[in-house]
Automatic annotation (TrEMBL), chain A:
InterPro entries: Flavodoxin_fold, Flavoprotein-like_sf, KefG/KefF. Keywords: Oxidoreductase. Pfam families: Flavodoxin_2 (PF02525). It comes from the Bacteria. Coiled coil: none annotated. This is NAD(P)H-dependent oxidoreductase. Residues 11-174 form the Flavodoxin-like fold domain. It comes from Alteromonas oceani. SUPFAM superfamilies: Flavoproteins.
Automatic annotation (TrEMBL), chain B:
Residues 417-533 form the RCK N-terminal domain. Belongs to the monovalent cation:proton antiporter 2 (CPA2) transporter (TC 2.A.37) family. Residues 614-639 are annotated as: Disordered. Residues 629-639 have a biased composition (Basic and acidic residues). It is found in: Membrane. The keyword Magnesium does not apply. The keyword Membrane applies. This is Monovalent cation:proton antiporter-2 (CPA2) family protein.
Amino acid sequence: MSTEASSSSCRILLLFAHPSQARSEVNSVLFNAAKQHKAVTAVDLYAEYPDFNISIEREQQRLLEHDVIIFQFPIYWYSTPALLKEWQDLVLEYGFAYGKGGDALKGKQFMCAVTAGGREEAYQTDGFNHFTLRQLLQPLEQMASITQLTYLAPFALFGSRTAKEEHRITRHSALWTKLLDTLAQDELDISKARQLENLTRYFDEQDLHQ
Amino acid sequence: MTGYFLQAFIYLLAAVIAVPVAKRFGLGSVLGYLIAGLIIGPVLGLVGEETNAIQHFAEFGVVMMLFLVGMELEPKALWNMKLRLLGLGGLQLLLTSAVITGIAMIAGLSWQVALTIGLIFALSSTAIVLQTFQEKGLQQTEGARGAFSILLFQDIAVIPMLALIPLLALPELASAINETAGQNAGHGDSLVEGLPGWLYGLVIIASIAFVTVGGHYLSRPLFRFVASSGLREIFTATALMLVIGIAALMGLVGLSPALGAFLAGVVLANSEFRHELKANIEPFKGLLLGLFFITVGAGIHFATLTENWVLIISITLGVMVFKALVLFVIALLFDLKGSNRWLLTLSLAQAGEFGFVLISFAAQNNVLATDLIALLQLVVALSMFLTPGLFILFERVIMPRYMHGSSNRQHDTVDDKGSVIIAGIGRFGQIVNRLLVANDFKTVILDIRSEQVDLMRQIGTQAYFGDASKPGMLDTAGIEQASLMVIAIDDRETAVEMVKYVKLAHPELKLLVRAFDRGHGYRLRQAGADYLISETYHSALEMGAQALRSLGVHPFQAERQKHAYRDIEAQQSDVLYEAWKDDASGERFDNNYRELFMELQQLIDDALKSDLHDNHSKRRGWTPPPKGYAEEQLKNQKD
């Protein structure tokens, strides 16, 4: 299921978790685009571990071989789909990712590429969901902190259920490819990328059309 | 006797050389046979007068072909296609024969002869066209489907044509031939000679009723009886007996044997023995039809061609242009768009093999004079020779123009799911089949036990009786189109042989095979199976896990033990296989293998045990941080 990345200045590991890909309108587009990217190792977790029997050895080896780790998933109950949580529980072991001698991930970059059904207005302190997306993803941010990963802002698409009808996917996909390019060439402005609410705002309109 | 062998050898040799060469050049097998005949007949002069006698014999291939065509036509499927068949096919036949008859009459021929010629040229070549569609992967396009409807209608229409042609006999021709060749016309074996008209009618109705009713009710018990004997050659003999018997019956009552065979084919289309029957008749049909085409090629008068080449070539081109025009109009009427319109137009512009049949039939019935026969045969043959050229024109010139901006092709491939062949529909095959069918995959099920096939049919699963280890059987089951084959038969040796054959003949096809045990699994793997499963492995694991649960082990823990077992088994299976393979002697399970096997058992034992007792085991997963972890963390923060 994975296409091993070739040598490039930054190697990206994309861990994609989507249990219902036949119904996917946005994530499958992004994942397929990433599969074409030379610097990306694209892993479809649900295809590789349909019975949740995750190989810890294999996954840790993958982490060691890459510089950027991306979780790609649709938001399920303000969190990751079950398999990606299982992946965290199993792979990020004491002595590997944290605790005594657990420095394997130190200095790597980490981000989430997510889609959310609700509108951006709903993900506000005074909105329907009472928290912003960044706030809701804080467990992952803290996971990155403990494992010494550099946490970047999430790359998020809101209102994903109607993105297709509203013709927003093409632009989002172009942003995604641009972001992967930038990450691969190690040209991302880390302090800017850490502070943003949403990485989709990282690029200016004119950047996109270059 | 030696003379016969020599002749048979010449025919076979010509076919063996010419047909593969013709196929290599994309000309198709029909043209290969014609060329073979052309070479051994007019060109080299190796065969001569006897071709006529052989041709009568070879025409039996046409009877068999119609039997097979009939078997392809389930009455229900035929009914569903009625609009396309009658619309496309009927219109094509009517318009083309009308146009050509008209032109022939203008050219000064009598209406009987003109009509015969019209009918001959209205037919196209099923053999060449369907084969080419398949070779070029065009079957699923709208154009090809239209063409198929037309060809099917033509194949059916041949039967009334065979009935019609004797009525067009020219009296003066008939008397001339009767005088010169009285002994040849010695068809003294007719039962109905001299019967009064009403009795004759009754006899005909009775024999047709016998074929239909008998085919429906008597054939099944007969086939079941024969199949239960388990003797392959007797089944073949039964199939041949059936076709020959019907041909003989029809001959006795003065009807066309082809018509009878066709009827019997339709009656048997729903039978569970259909694929097996087809597989048995197919080789005979193929050889006899091949022989028929060779005799046609051998019988071509080269002299006629060299003397009248301008006339013959212009008639050929004329016929093809008019046929194409009619087809183009029909394509317009039926709203075929883009490249499909051109595909229909170009693919069917030739005359076909049934043209030859009609020509020789018309000759026997004194409808056509000898010089006209030679000319017509040349035109039919030439137009068939030109067909591959038309397909090349379509592929190289027309397709590229429609490739962009046309959603046709994408649309066409949607329902083109590769089907799955399942060999063996016992307890194992049934579950595989149900899972596939529930997910809308098309399966073709073959089983050699006719009771099992009956049982499946009673519970609504469409299974066919047939021996999947026979290449011919797999061909009729559509192995060319299949993308996957599941082998779940009980006979271990046959399963290994099947894997070998299928991997050799269809390397692209994925083979999923059930193994009986470890040793059988290795042999299947060596033979080239893509995926193997031991028949009891997973159920035994499941039972083991349930036993653990019943003994009070936590269900999730039991599940994990099962996973651990499976993982280690999978990791070690390659090592064991190599050890098994390395041992060249007859005793496959030698000491080295035994040792490795014991090692595997030990590995599994260790893994399962450690997980149960030891916190820091080799089996990882959800291992909590060490007990002093929280204090360590606080200390780090202070630093």
